[in-house]
Structure formats: structure tokens, C-alpha cells
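I hope you will forgive my troubling you with a question about protein structure. The full record is reproduced below for your convenience:

——
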Amino acid sequence: MTLKVIGGGLAGCEAAWQAAERGIDVELYEMRPEKSTGAHRTGDLAELVCSNSLGSNLMGRAAGLLKAELRLLGSLLISCADASSVPAGGALAVDRQAFSDCILHKIESHPRIQLIRREITEIPESPAILATGPLTSPALSSALKALTDEDQLYFYDAIAPIVHRDSVDMAIAFRSNRYDRDDERDKGDYLNCPFTEEQYYKFREALLAAERIELRGFEAAIEDGVDAGREHYFQGCQPVEVIGRRGEKSLAFGPMRPVGLFDPHTGRRPFAVVQLRQDNIAGDLYNLVGFQTNLKFSEQARVFRMIPGLENATFERYGQMHRNTFIAAPVVLNDQYEFHRQPGLFAAGQLAGVEGYAGNIASGLVTGINAARQIRGEAPLGLPLTTMTGALLNYVAHADLRDYQPTKAMFGLLPKPEDGVRRSKRDRYAYYSERAIVDLKAYLGLG
């Protein structure tokens, strides 16, 4: 029996690999490059549309715990991310092209996976996995709506610009991670563009006055009856100009916070700062951290060159906004990401209600394993709820639909400590991480 996996993104590639590794023949369908989206730039598998960072790699962070679990569970994509990583402090950031190339090589060389470049416009027969992501095509979105009888939920997502490293003025910018010691400065992974108070307020004024792209086109094309003008953003990826409207210092306390940074040119902490993170292994491209935007391209060139150190910046890619689609998972899916109305049909990735690169990978891993187990007549995974992977599964099935939106890994999803001991925030997160790894190893029989 052949498993069809629809979508060659993070979740789809992980799902296809996990099922194939368990002896299942897999057809992996990807519509790009035959048909692209408003946000993708290539036909590459697992293209990272937004940031090149998969989040923290530290065990005391929720994203770091999730990646540690995925390594134990044998994730293909996390292994490719590790192999294509670039300097990013405590985060796991990757060279986008090297990451995609690693995955493509693994998928194409697997004897049980057939990669088919074709758009799927109808719901496939079971067994199948829908991993078409937030940019699911209008035709398949309509078929999903007919299957579920539920209105599509959605939000708008935004992408940050990328600049060329050699166009950054290092007489103004400086290299440092937050909280570096004196002997570590000038060796940090991030480039930092410092603002004086006067520069900050002039920049904010220009940012708020800049022209934005009207929400229309593919953002509004998925279905009739949607108020495309409503600005409904995912909280973790809001446009910088939207954040700036919240208050005079909303940027300085948000994506431009200077905490933990020391400007060697002035000997003081900047009033605000824009951080740039390396975007490829060559180190010649950097993205503006937290600067997702929907400004017109000409306005981005004008306003973002007001950032100290970027006066002569050349842009590899401007920021843009795209519409993300996801289903009402708590009423559509069970706690294995399987559709109630079509047994053997699974959803994975952001379409299913999981946010963040690592979360998408985790959902693909679980659905790939469970689809294979179902085909083989075996019981599905029963991951402990004390693990981040298990907690994300539980959230999708049981979240309150009234304020439901895709969620990323966070410690608030995990059960509270059983011993009732009061702990500091840091100690509590360390406890959650240690408990999760111990419980996962026990579940996997790793001792």
C-alpha cells in the first residue's frame, strides 16, 4: 500500500522520510516549481520562507527542548539543519540552500520515496498526509472546506528583508551577541546597528508614515466571504510597522531592544538596536531580525536605509506579507492529527495548527510514523504529555476554538511539576526539560 504525502515542505518531507524508513512506499507530491506561491522563491524542498533560524538550541528553552526530542526520535530535517548550521549564538540557524539541498538529496536517494512535481487539487484517498502548509493552494483549500464543513481560519504572516554583508558599514555597526564578556566582543554572531534616541524617533516616524502594500491578490483568493482587509496577524510574526504603532517605545522594548549590548564605538549601551543574523554559510547575507514587514519595496529601501550602518545597504530580498491558512484542528482532527471524517487521512505542519519550523517538523515526524503504523496494523504513538512533542499533539486536539491559532513550542503547554516544589522560572524550565528527556527515553526504551 502506497502512502501519499501532499506537500514538500518541512512537515511533508519529514513525514515522507519517517514512513519510508518504516518500510512504506511513499509518493511525495510538491506543486513547485510547476506552480508557485506568493511567498516562495524556488522549487526547493523544505524552502524556508521566513527566517533562517529554527529557534533556540538551548535545553532551558522550549524550542531547544523540542529539537532535543526530535534528535532522539530520529528526525531527518533536524539532522540536515545541524549539518547546514551557521553561527547564531544559542540558536540553530541554517544556510537555506544547504539545508534544502541536504533534504532533497536524502529524499531523492531513498528507494521507497518517489518525488512527484504536480499540484494536487482534490483530497486524496487514504492513506494520505496533507502537509501543504500555510500557503495551501485555493483549489485544495476549497476541497478541504468541503471535507470539514468548517470555515478556514487564517492569519497574515510577514517576512523580513535580507541585505548583503559587504553593504553594512562596520564603522557604525558592531559584531556582538547579547551579554558578551569584554573578551568576547567583536567575535559575536550578530551584527548590531545602534541608534541614538534622536535617530530612533526619526526612524519610527518614517516607518509609521511609509506606504504599505494593500492586502489583496493571493492573500484574499482562498475563499469567498473572507474579510481580506482585516489585519489578523500571528503574534510571533507581526510586521515591524504594526508593532511601532503600539507606542513610542514599543520598538525599543520589542525587536529593537538594546538589552545586553554594548557599543564599542561609544562605550555605551545604544538607545535601540537592529540586529542582523547570518543567513547563509558563506556569511555574505544577513537578515534583519524581527523586521517582518508589509511596506512597499521602494519604502523599505528608503526607510531601512535610515538604520545606522545600513545607509548604503543592498537588498538580496525585501520583506513581504503572505496569507497563511490553517484548519480548525480541535474540531476536525483527533490527537494523532487524523481527520475525523476520513480515517487514514492526516494533516501535518502549520495547516494542522503547529507554528514554528521545529513544530512543523515534529508534526511531520508524528504523522509519518503514525501513518506507517496504521498501514502496518500497529498502534499509534503514545508520546508522554510531559514531552514538548506530545504536548503539541495534545494542544491541536483540545485547544479552545474561540481563540485558536497555530502554536509553537512553549513550556506553558506542559503539565506543571508533580512535586509541588516552588521554583524560579529558570529552574522550572530546566525541570521541564529534564523531565521531558527522561520520559521520552523511557518511552523509547533508551534507559
